[in-house]
Amino acid sequence: MTDLIRSAGLSYYPEVARSVGLDPRQMMRKVRLPLACLDKPDTPIAVTGLRRLLELSAEASGAEDFGLRLAERGGLTNFGAVGLIVREQATVGEAIEAFSRFIPIHHDGMKLDVTRDKQTVTVTLHLRGRQPTAPRQSIDMALGSVHRIIQSLFGSDWRPQEVHLHYPPPHDRKRYREFYGCRVTFNAEDDSILLSAHDMERRIPSAHPLIASYLRKRIEAIETRPASWEEKVDEVVRLLLAGGDCTVERVAEHLACTRRTVHRHLAEAGTSFSAILDAQRADLVVQLIDNPGRPLADIAVQLGFSAQSAMARWFRGHFGCTITAWRKGVRPLKSSTVATAA
Asked: What tens digit of pLDDT does each residue of 310-339 get?
């Protein structure tokens, strides 16, 4: 199953890539990641594509700390709604627990385990993947981002007790000690950050309980992430269609696979790309035509029709009336379900 991550994690990629002499757009084309995701931070992209981008960028630039550089520039805003709810918790402990609970909304394959004893709290990172462990740059970016988020709750003077990394030491260990501000152990059993249990009680001055409660309700409503191929394709189609650029090739690009793979998995699920696209078009078209000032030709282009006349024929076949009649309030019986949902 293809894991997805919100493209907000790439917000600083162009800046970091250029700083080490790389052309960010050229690098993204090499791993077939859609360039448009740089301008749309909530775009779902394949985790495998992101991992290839990080590893290739580190190799091409010679920057062994490429993942750390991305984490260094990131922060809570890179995690969208998850970052917002973390910031509004009353204590650091509650913020870390909230981050652990809701991080899968941002990154399907990322998990944080939080364990405590009397003196120490250990935050352990798990990244799902086909290999026994995730690539080094992905670990650096993810665990480094967790460190930066915790640090942002305390202030820049905070340091963890220790950091553990499962992979062999880099050429420049000093870089890692400077980034984390503590002892860093390599060839460890896991990838984790250790902090004082006392730190968990630290209150967050900027926290607002009413905002936290509101955000929690909103984020709980979207906590269940798409799990099947059908659901993941549906999510990407919905997003791309809203931007007016939805084809099976574009969907495959976001999922880091070929169009044949998309068709095969959907057939195994008993559906098709055409069926998913048709359903999403039906949901979106009734919203778009509700604006009488929007030209139908523009709507046809956004929904991927070859011409306005093609959209008109599709609409009549799907809803049982013309667009003009729909705008006047006509709701044939065959479209009652769609009309109610709209």
From this structure: 999 999 998 999 999 998 888 886 544 444
For residues 315 and 309, give the distance between their C-alpha atoms in angstroms, rounded to a whole number: 10
Contact 317, 310 (CB under 8 A): no
Domains of the chain are 61-221 (no CATH), 229-341 (1.10.10.60)
List of long-range contacts for 149-157, beta carbons under 8 Å, 24+ apart: 149/75, 149/76, 149/79, 149/83, 149/86, 149/99, 150/92, 150/96, 150/123, 150/193, 150/195, 152/75, 152/76, 153/86, 153/87, 153/92, 153/95, 153/202, 153/204, 154/92, 154/199, 154/202
Residue 83 has a CB neighbour count (10 Å cut-off) of 21
The neighbour count for residue 146, using CB atoms within 10 Å, is 23
The pTM score is 0.70
